[in-house]
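User: Please predict the structure of the protein below. I'd like the answer in structure-token form so I can feed it into my own downstream comparison script.

Assistant: Understood. Taking the following sequence of 265 residues as input:
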Amino acid sequence: MARLNGFLFPRSATGSSSLLPVPPWHYSGDLLTIEYRADPDAVAELLPEPLEPPRDDEDPGAVAFVVADWQSCSDSFDEVLDPIRLQYKEAFFVVRCRYEGKLWSRCVYIWVDKDFAMVRGHFQGYPKKLGSVHLTRPVTVGKAGPRLEPGGRFGATLAAYDRRLATARFTITGPSTDAGFVNSLPMLHHRWLPRIESDGTDSLDELVTVRGTDVELGPAFRGDAELELFASPVEELTRIAPREMIGGYWRSVGTTFVEGTTLGG
């Protein structure tokens, strides 16, 4: 009988066909973060047991919309010379929750534009779907883009199934000491897989946490932000539409994922 190799499916004799290489996975990217306040009840309905909403004094309606332009690779760094496997973009919504007396960040919706990034997210517990994501890139020469300085203007869009889901705008007003508070905590996720019998139960139901190592942070910038969310027959973003804007942030980030931790199941 053949021995099959590969970190994830499809496994083969050599393992080269696997959608994902073995960790560690290294990431470098630019992130636009827009924070706002939504209906706290709409945020709470996205938190399954045993998670609880933040307390009233912890801004329970706070949400972060994050758009990222990433490069990611394995420890072989082979992807650097094959950039279609290196580059992807994603857009996601983060809220916060309480678990065992601690406050956590949690990704409730997320879209990516490459299959390897989507499946990697499923492995880590992110609820990733395929979408179309675009983000203005800063420039250091010429006029075809903003500079990372006051007055620099950025845009971001998210679409899926041929429907626009989000439009964001951000204008830098000055430097910042951070890139917001909603997405600043360790991430708490569920890894779910329904049983093949389709009987309403799960073969996999794990509560996990993931966090990067070897984190490097570029200078952070704050600014004025706008965000508009649109209706779709297969999305629910308008339920967490902004009631009040908090602000926007830009930062370049580098990190490495080695492993996560199972907290319960």
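That's the full token string. The radius of gyration is 19 Å.
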